[in-house]
Fold:
Amino acid sequence: MFSIKKRYFVYSIIIYIALFLVGAFILLLFQRYSQHGLREEAAQYASEYVASGYQPVDIRNMNLTTLLLKSGELTFLAGPSHHLNINSTIENIVLRNQNKDSFYVVIFDMKTGQFLSLAGQSISDDKDKPSMIILGHYLTYLNSVYMAYFFIYTPAYLLVCLSLFLIARYNDRVRLIHQQYLANVSHELKSPISSISAIADTLSEIDSLDEKTRSKYYGIILRESKRLDHTVKDIIELSKLQDPYQEINKVTAFGDDIFNPILSRYQEWCENLDIHFVLNPSIHQLPALYTDISMIHKLLTILMDNSMKFMQPGDTLSIDSTPHSDYVDIHICDTGCGIAAEHLPHIFERFYKVDDSSNLSGSGLGLSMAQEIVHRLGESIKVKSEPGKGTCFTFTIHKNATKKRHYCDKNSI
Structure:
C-alpha cells in the first residue's frame, strides 16, 4: 500500500512538472510572436511620426506617449503623462540605448498592472549630441495574457515548488527511517555475535573449565546462534514482503482448506504446553474466501506464536470468526499478560519490543511482517489488549462472492 501511494505521488509530481513546462513553452512562443509583431508596429509608428511630425491628439487616442531624448535629457513631447510612469527603470533603459540607431523593449509596469513597449529610433547623426524619438505604447491586449500567466502559470509554479518541498521532506523521512532500521538491524545482529564471541574467547583461553560450565557455555552459543539465524531470516522475509513485485497468488478456498493444516499443528503444541486451545465452530463454516493461502499461513503462524510467547500454563488461546457482507473477520485471542495502552500504537513497528529486559525470544520483526502481509493482501488488521486480561488480533479476509458452501444457510453468508 505504501509503495502504491508513493507511486501515485511521484506520478502527480511528474504531471505537474510537465504542465509547467508546456505552459512555459507556450508562453515563450506567444511572447516571441508578439514581440515580432510589436517591433514592426513600433517601427511603423516611429517612421510615420518622424516623417509627419507629432500629432498629440492622434497619439493620445492610440494610447501612446511620446518622449524625446536630446543631449541626455528625457522630456515629454506629447501624450497624457499619467499613462506612463517615468521611473528609474525606464530612464535607465532609454539612457542605456541612446547611442544605438534603434531599440525595442517590453516591460511590465507594476503600478498600473500593464505591459509597456518602448521603441526608440535615432533622429540625429551626431553621436555626441544624440536625439532619439521614443514611443511608449501600453499593450492592453497583453493584459489578458498576463492574467492567464498570473492565475495559471504562477500557481502551477508554486504547486511544483510545494511538491518539490514535500518530496524533500519525504526523502528526509525515508532517510531517517532507513537510518533507524540500519541501527536496529546492527543492534539485533551485534548482540548475539558479541555473546558468541565472548564465550568462544572464554572457552579458548581457559582450559580448566569443568564439563558442566562448558556445557552451559555451549548452550548459550547454540541459543544465540539460533537467535541470530532467526533474526536474519526475519529480515530477509520482511524484505521479500516489501518487494512490490513479489507475486501474490490468490485463489478461492474454503475455511477448512485454509485453517485446518496450521491449526491442527498448534492444537497439539498447546496441549503439550498445558494451554487451552479453543477453535470456534464458525471457522469450519466459513464461505469461499479469496486469498493467498501460504501468506495467510505465515500470518497465522506469526500471530499465534506471538500469543503463545506471552502465555502461561492454564491460559486460553481461541480462534473465532465474524462474517460480514463481503469479508470475514478472523479473531486470534489469548488470555495472556496483555499489552499496556502506551505500547499498542507501536507494536507493528520494526524491532519494537514491549519489554527489552525480558528473556523472551524474538527479533521484533514478527508483527511488522504480519502487518506487511495484511497490506499486501489488501486486508486490514487491528489489535485490542488489556494488561492482565489478554490480547486479541483481528484481521480480514475477503469472500469470493461467486461460490457458497452447499450446506450453508444463505443468511449466514
The chain has three domains: 2-138, 148-241, 251-412. The helical segments are 2-52, 56-61, 88-96, 143-205, 211-241, 255-272, 293-309, 366-376. The longest strand covers residues 114-122.
